Amino acid sequence: MLNIAVLVSGGGTNLQAIIDAIESGKLKSVAIGCVISNRKDAYALTRAADHNIPGECIRPRDFNSMEEYGDHMADFLRTRNIDLVVLAGFLVVLPANFINAFRGRIINIHPSLIPSFCGDGFYGLKVHEAALARGVKVTGATVHYVDEGTDTGPIILQKAVYVEPGDTPETLQKRVMQQAEWVILPEAIAIIQKELEDRS
Ligand code: GAR
User: Fold this and answer.
1) Burial state string for 68-97 with b = 16 or more CB within 10 A and e = fewer than 16
2) Cα–Cα 20 to 30 A to 11, which of 56, 57, 111, 117?
């Protein structure tokens, strides 16, 4: 069984895609051990509760430093025997001590084809606003391993999505989620599950 933690900050539609993949049997032998949000009001926590998944709000501002926050997060996840950490719309930049504690076991979904429209300041709707402002005709989503940089880790999967005439940031965001993010995030988890099995 692959025990994953899903870290969220908002609506949690990517969390929902993982829950759906598990419940439909597309993702086998995967369990969500916990959902952690940095915001108490994140709707993702309601989604977790609706599916009897333990949810927790852990906020950087409640610690003296990002290092203390990173240590606490690592201890919290180790205590729960988490194998893989999935950042699904998680908007906190994790500190180096946390990255080190789970190196090679943290993945992130980003709503563009990296290396376009990524890095500091590119998150959520801003990514799609920038893609439309540049006039790209194709965008998409990327799942990648997380290292100390912002969106710099090795790429696991990408899926392209066409920009359509008349797209707004909101319509483009929705299409990228539906056609790319919700598809490749569960797929990436399955790929890592197989890699970890092959290694053991
Ligand atoms: C998603 O589009 C995700 O790719 C993006 O935030 C959204 C969260 O939606 N993440 C980033 O921009 C990270 N740089 P969700 O809460 O409905 O899954």
Assistant:
1) ebbbebbeebeeeebbbbbbbbbebebbee
2) 117
Q: Which helix (H) or strand (E) holds 179?
A: none
Catalytic residue among 51, 72, 110, 128: 110
Q: What is the position in ligand 1's atom list of the atom closest to the CA of 43?
A: 16
This prediction has a pTM of: 0.98
Choice from 87, 90, 109 to test ligand 1 binding pocket (greatest atom count within 8 A of CB): 109
Instruction: Name every protein residue with a CB atom under 6 angstroms from any ligand 1 atom.
Output: 8, 10-14, 44, 88-89, 109-111, 123-124, 127, 177, 181
| Fold that domain 2-199 belongs to in CATH | Rossmann fold (3.40.50)
DSSP string over 27-39: S-SEEEEEEEESS
CA 200 to centroid of ligand 1, rounded, Å: 32
Q: Are 83 and 61 in contact (CB under 8 A)?
A: no
